[in-house]
Amino acid sequence: MRETNTIVDVKATIAHTRRISSDVSIITLNCPSIAATAKPGNFVNIKVNDTTQPLLRRPFSIHDVQGTMIEVMVKSVGCGTTLFCNSDEGSTVMVLGPLGNSFDITTEHFNTAVLVSGGIGTAPMLFLEKTLIVKGIKVINLVGVRTNNDLLTQNLSNCRFATDDGSIGLKGTVLDLLQNELTELEKEGPLKIFACGPNPMLKALAKFSQDHQLSCDVSLESVMGCGIGICYGCSVEINAPSGGVKTILLCRQGPVIDAKLLVV
Ligand SMILES: Cc1cc2nc3c(=O)[nH]c(=O)nc-3n(C[C@H](O)[C@H](O)[C@H](O)COP(=O)(O)OP(=O)(O)OC[C@H]3O[C@@H](n4cnc5c(N)ncnc54)[C@H](O)[C@@H]3O)c2cc1C
User: Fold this and answer.
1) Test site for ligand 1: of 81, 220, 252, 257, most ligand atoms within 8 A of the Cβ
2) Atom 25 in ligand 1: which residue has the minimum CA distance?
3) What is the model's pTM?
4) Which of 42, 69, 99 is the last residue of a domain?
């Protein structure tokens, strides 16, 4: 179900950059071979320039796929992301991917998908939503941000919001929103939750879904070096099915894991 990909490392032209908020851009890259095989939840590891500053690539979820193009949604938080957001259209970057596993969208057990995202965790949700809709699954987005100025949801459908300051939607966290909406959502039929956001949010959501026996996939973040299982920079502990904990490499056995396996 979470099969591995044929990984390629390609020089990709930046076809388009579009700033969608004060610190987030959507960057469109011409990567036919990655676009052809990418699945929702996969990521790419990008060398944002050809100097040694920064030395390492930076990982980004695949935000959307359109023909030969992939899109990434990039929040400027430091050196690599700021350089990338300021890249010129027509310039090139090295793109390694598609990497990691994907969300488990085998649909026997659910007919409604609840996509729960926080902050830049919205990045993988558009590709996921489009893929689910093609499969006939109803999609509802629960989106948590600090304020309505941080919304990154232009292309998502069926969105309900939670904000820290109450400027749009519920005043509270996206988990509060899920708690409020759960009874209504469950009337839609069997649910599955797909989540991406800050790790503390995902831990709280994993505990909630464990307590309520909800099916839930979470896409985790960690600092990542190589993206292909060599540097061991992204090792995390998860619950071992046989009891106790075991270590996995998030770049290969993640970034998506079943919420039941998250140590909460
Ligand atoms: C699988 C995966 C998918 C991701 N998808 C996206 C995405 O779609 N869009 C997006 O904007 N970001 C995404 N990230 C996070 C992104 O990779 C980091 O923000 C980026 O590597 C920071 O690089 P920088 O050079 O700008 O920051 P640096 O200058 O290296 O560091 C600046 C700050 O960012 C923190 N930071 C560095 N790396 C990470 C990281 N991996 N996660 C969280 N904080 C980090 C540092 O601790 C520091 O506080 C993803 C991360 C992973 C692991």
Assistant:
1) 81
2) 80
3) 0.95
4) 99
